Amino acid sequence: MVKSLGKAKKDVVIVGPWQQIAALVDSISNIRLMGLLSEILVMGEYDGRMKVTGQLDDLPKMIEEWNAYCIVSLMHKMEKNTRRDYWKWFAEKDIPVEKFTSVIHHNTNIPMKWVDVGNGCIIHPFVTISENVTLHENVILEPGVFIRPGVEIGRFTIIESGALISEAATIGSAVCIGANVVIDPFVRIVSFVDIPPNTHIIKDII
Q1: Is the separation of the CB atoms in 134 and 33 below 8 Å?
Q2: Which residues have C-beta within 8 Å of that of residue 173, sequence separation ≥ 6?
Q3: End-of-domain residue from the set 99, 121, 156
Q4: How many CB atoms lie within 10 A of CB 44?
Q5: Confidence of residue 1 (pLDDT cuts 50, 70, 90)
Q6: Domain region containing 26
Q7: Are residues 191 and 169 in the same domain?
Q8: Quick check: is 52 in a domain?
């Protein structure tokens, strides 16, 4: 079973590539999927089983008129400039953070009492998060990510499979950390940085 934060049943739209998170979203019991917002597909088309009901610019109206919530997947593996554009779009629209639904696989090791998980985070199976970690809104953690104590991760950052974020590291917003990357303790990484897979970061990127 996959869980989302919060117990009440919610009407939810998916923003971005549905297939990226299909396995997670399929098993959530407390949401009703209302469709997909896509910048690539045309209204009425399907991405797998998910029907396209609009584009990103339709989201504020859906939130207001449908009282809809959203799960944001579109930052996944995007180019740096594209992630920056979308980060700016969400900042400018000032969408309330409570309208972002978090999705957390049950097979994770997260001491929720000691971890601050922002709204809209997507956490895949086999992720381990230590105490005193802060995930800001819309962070995506792929399978096998390990985050040690005292780490802070900015909004719309994606950390790919098998990456290790060591103690007290600080990661900015809309960063893409590739698979099997190792970030050393106390390292600071500014926003909108791409770190290639299998890289070992031993000093700040500022």
Answers
A1: no
A2: 87, 136, 154, 155, 156, 157, 191, 192
A3: 99
A4: 9
A5: very low
A6: 2-99
A7: yes
A8: yes
Residue with tokens 């590739």: 178
Q: Please name the residues in contact with 108: beta carbons below 8 A apart, sequence gap of 6 or more.
A: 123, 124, 125, 126, 127, 128, 129
Contacts of 178 (CB under 8 A, 6+ apart): 160, 163, 194, 195, 196, 197, 198, 199
Kindly give, in sequence order, each residue whose CB lies less than 8 Å from that of residue 163, ignoring residues fewer than 6 positions away: 142, 145, 146, 177, 178, 179, 180, 181, 182, 183
Clarify whether residues 73 and 115 are in a common domain. no
Which tokens in the block code for residue 132? 């005193």
Q: How confident is the model at residue 39 (pLDDT cuts 50, 70, 90)?
A: confident
Percent of the chain with pLDDT strictly greater than 70: 92
Q: Which of 46, 76, 99 is the last residue of a domain?
A: 99
* End-to-end CA, the chain: 40
Q: Say whether pTM exceeds 0.70.
A: yes
Identify whether 118 is part of a domain.
yes
11/84 same-domain check: yes
